[in-house]
Amino acid sequence: xxxxxxxxxxxxxxxxxxxxxxxxxxxxxxxxxxxxxxxxxxxxxxxxxxxxxxxxxxxxxxxxxxxxxxxxxxxxxxxxxxxxxxxxxxxxxxxxxxxxxxxxxxxxxxxxxxxxxxxxxxxxxxxxxxxxxxxxxxxxxxxxxxxxxxxxxxxxxxxxxxxxxxxxxxxxxxxxxxxxxxxxxxxxxxxxxxxxxxxxxxxxxxxxxxxxxxxxxxxxxxxxxxxxxxxxxxxxxxxxxxxxxxxxxxxxxxxxxxxxxxxxxxxxxxxxxxxxxxxxxxxxxxxxxxxxxxxxxxxxxxxxxxxxxxxxxxxxxxxxxxxxxxxxxxxxxxxxxxxxxxxxxxxxxxxxxxxxxxxxxxx
Length: 363
Fold this sequence. Notes:
It comes from Roseivivax halotolerans. The chain is 48% helix and 6% strand. By secondary structure, the chain is mainly alpha-helical. The chain has three domains: 9-59, no CATH class; 66-143, DNA polymerase, domain 1 (Orthogonal Bundle), CATH 1.10.150; 175-351, Intergrase catalytic core (hpI Integrase, Chain A). Helix 13 packs across helix 14 (330-351). The N and C termini lie far apart (71 Å).
């Protein structure tokens, strides 16, 4: 019996004597029931799979090129340990650099990187252009010890400044905006906003908090973006908001109207819809963001006279050892308790002059 052979493909009989076939490189299997072995359809399917494999090979980064350096960086432990949001940003930077991925490493210079930086600013804006610069710097830094490049050619490139006429992102909320949002949000949204507003947590971290992270009157956690430890005392205002929240069986502190844990995208969609209604009624000013609440906490405490170190401790901007157990950071909780008392008093003082809104907007 003549054995059919096709370059790049493995053809064999399985333990039941049934013929099998797959592409050696990609592992793509061919359904021999639909395309019988040796038929015209079979050879056509082999040709199609081989063509796809060749196309992928042509797109793969070549050694000794910018694309090769980027691909090598994506395999590092450093990249693997980054926050998911940072990984997404870096992937977008790699997509921007894709058209020049075949640039030889020997051709990479500081003027070239500066030119890439300038082009990025014109195409995707100053902020993302600076992200591209930062990304390239990380790629070069981790390529140097491996002998893939001799130095960091992005280090000498000056970051693009913020345009003077551009409003700051994630601005602090006014006292009036805080009052109207809490007064008019649906219960399952109100408790989420209250939690972020009274802790300074990043929205993504707040949505992930579990019941086990509350020990007595303290929230223990780790910032997802940096890995920094946080110990946040629960003040009377937040305690009241948590007690008033709808009951649910989710493991997380916050949950949707159906009692399921929030996803970041899900909450963002609900929040955006709710915010747009308030903006349309001119109840809040444009530019209101959930991350702006973190800035609000910092601004409130700074205006109340607290030191930067005290504010940084509350917001998780200190770098403790990741191996330290929460119980060993009791001193951090004690320091933050004083900070939280200041925030409570300052928020109460400011809210006395604000009249609450009674109308409810369901997101």
